[in-house]
Write a structure and sequence with these properties.
By secondary structure, the chain is of the alpha/beta class. Helices cover 34% and strands 15% of the residues. The model is unreliable at 222-232 (pLDDT under 50).
Length: 232
């Protein structure tokens, strides 16, 4: 089941789909590209939210606005949770995990890696029993020193790549290295609209070996496949 692990498809939630019409157009594009399951991951910035409850209610309303008419009916609620100081202490943070699973998508700050980030990641994993997925890990190559990037790779996390990472040699090389090292990898469009950041699964399915895609898709299912860089 071709699964988009990272998508800003819910209207009115963040800088993604600006209205219901845009959200529905995005689902139509995804269906044409073969996507069968969408994990909706609107941004969650703890310092900007009035409360976790308020965010969850807004997210539910956003889903209901497209639920009956979405071209892809299988939409799973999730969030892209910004890693901030103390994020692991939020009561009920497990409600931001992918619905029906123990997986949570976390977004690192766009600045050099610091040890407190590892502490927050580890606390979310150990104290809340959640499996951490780190969003668009390839985008941090330009921010982290080589030493700090290696620290990031040592975290016990699943690493999410945006589909367009296959278009950048340095990012594709990182993906190959991580697969060769036994890292768990999943893919997402990180789509926000129907124009500059539109769904791009047609590109990924053309450039990525089907075995690698199956391993990504089946992380939410029993019997996850193990693949290596030779599959790319």
């Amino acid at each position: 089941m071709l699964t988009d692990y990272h998508c800003h498809i819910l209207p009115f939630m963040d800088d993604g789909a600006e209205d219901v019409e845009t959200a529905l157009e995005m689902t139509e594009i995804m269906k044409e590209q073969g996507v069968e399951r969408i994990i909706a991951t609107p941004h969650f910035y703890a310092h900007e939210e009035r409360s976790l409850t308020d965010y969850l209610l807004r997210r539910e309303d956003a889903l209901e606005s497209i639920w009956d008419t979405s071209a892809v009916p299988d939409i799973v609620l999730g969030a892209e949770v910004a890693i901030e100081h103390g994020i692991s202490k939020i009561h009920g943070i497990e409600q931001l995990a992918f619905e029906g699973s123990d997986m949570i998508l976390l977004e690192l700050p766009f600045r050099d890696y610091e040890d407190w980030m590892s502490e927050e990641i580890n606390a979310i994993s150990s104290e809340h029993g959640l499996k951490v997925i780190l969003a668009h890990v390839h985008r941090y190559l330009q921010y982290y020193s080589p030493e700090n990037f290696e620290k990031l790779l040592k975290t016990d996390a699943v690493f999410q790549f945006n589909n367009d990472a296959f278009l950048v040699p340095e990012e594709k090389e990182l993906l190959e290295r991580m697969l060769a090292g036994g890292k768990r990898v999943v893919f997402g469009s990180d789509a926000h609209n129907t124009e500059g950041r539109r769904p791009n699964w047609d590109m990924l399915t053309e450039k990525c070996d089907p075995a690698v895609l199956r391993a990504s898709d089946e992380l939410l299912e029993p019997g996850r496949l193990i693949v290596t860089a030779q599959n790319i």
